[in-house]
Amino acid sequence: xxxxxxxxxxxxxxxxxxxxxxxxxxxxxxxxxxxxxxxxxxxxxxxxxxxxxxxxxxxxxxxxxxxxxxxxxxxxxxxxxxxxxxxxxxxxxxxxxxxxxxxxxxxxxxxxxxxxxxxxxxxxxxxxxxxxxxxxxxxxxxxxxxxxxxxxxxxxxxxxxxxxxxxxxxxxxxxxxxxxxxxxxxxxxxxxxxxxxxxxxxxxxxxxxxxxxxxxxxxxxxxxxxxxxxxxxxxxxxxxxxxxxxxxxxxxxxxxxxxxxxxxxxxxxxxxxxxxxxxxxxxxxxxxxxxxxxxxxxxxxxxxxxxxxxxxxxxxxxxxxxxxxxxxxxxxxxxxxxxxxxxxxxxxxxxxxxxxxxxxxxxxxxxxxxxxxxxxxxxxxxxxxxxxxxxxxxxxxxxxxxxxxxxxxxxxxxxxxxxxxxxxxxxxxxxxxxxxxxx
Length: 439
Known about the structure:
There is one protein chain. The protein starts with 81 loop residues before the first strand and ends with a strand. With 439 residues, it is mainly beta. It has 5 helices and 22 strands. Among the domains are: 82-106 and 223-332, Trypsin-like serine proteases (Thrombin, subunit H, Beta Barrel), CATH 2.40.10.10; 347-438, Pdz3 Domain (Roll). The chain is globular and about 65 Å long. 9% of the residues lie in helices and 32% in strands. The longest helix is centred in the last third of the chain and has 14 residues, at 329-342. The strands form 4 sheets. A 6-stranded antiparallel β-barrel has the order 9-10-11-14-13-12. 55% of the residues are buried. A hairpin with a 2-residue loop joins strand 20 (417-424) and strand 21 (427-434).
């Protein structure tokens, strides 16, 4: 996955090989179609507006013409059919390992006629309050609802307040559809509606920063260290599923360091090193907060796995099935701060293109990320990596697919040094690599 988001391996230059395709249950390749207080206070940064994105927060106006033909039925019977929710792209979890399909979380237009009024979360009975009650009361004032419209579509998502003067963090796919000629509005938890502009976006991490016009005295979110998050920790999701502002759901952290790839085409593939949660996340939760029991942000909700709910070929998909994903707070904070300061963001760059190395006995099982090419003068080249090497770990983190290598690299900041475990022929060695930087 390339570091530009394509499913070869992290580290290729923009324009490198495209992603290894999603695969149907019978193995046929196919790209899934249409998912402490804030430290920022620099002056407003100007950046180009995002370009159009198919299916950001609502259904685009459908073009005239015949309905698309139904997809062919899988040749392998007896498997659960995996599909996409809403309008955006899905992708395999963990590359070719076949764990499922991930959809970006968007709010389909027309779900409800009128957006629900914002409601404050207040603890009325302290004696019966739960951990989720306290977390919601702490974090809800820092979560906003985002409305995006363009000439062809409209929809909504969620966001997290970064500063008291109006910087807000959300997903790139929430705002990308409101490009040239579109509009973005933000409603805070107290019901105030603001116009907003896009400060900058980072499609590779699916993050964007907005600036509210004339905002002051907002409540910035408190961010926790996502490195401290453990499986089983309380997780509370706050956002606007289906346009219902200030909705709170709770669960636990189901997994950390989960390599998740989303995107419907080679050009919009995104790989994130996600926190997985069973807290209910639905279309419209995108960009909202995943918080711990203390009400501190540990992640930005961005994607869900869904199961097809109709007959073969149907476009109807299920919503929440208890498998949701959030961008860890450490990554989100770093990228948000760069966007606020410069209008753009950077990410760690290894400098290789790779593909999943398959087990000899079962091609569905990955055994590492096999390097297909090495970029000259890159971090990988400096560490002596060669074509044919298979990366099996980054630090103490196992790597079984190219997607997992991409996610592991992107979880680091540019300039950090990591130890790679590399299999070359019958021998295994380690190599220290100081990661480069790319935008």
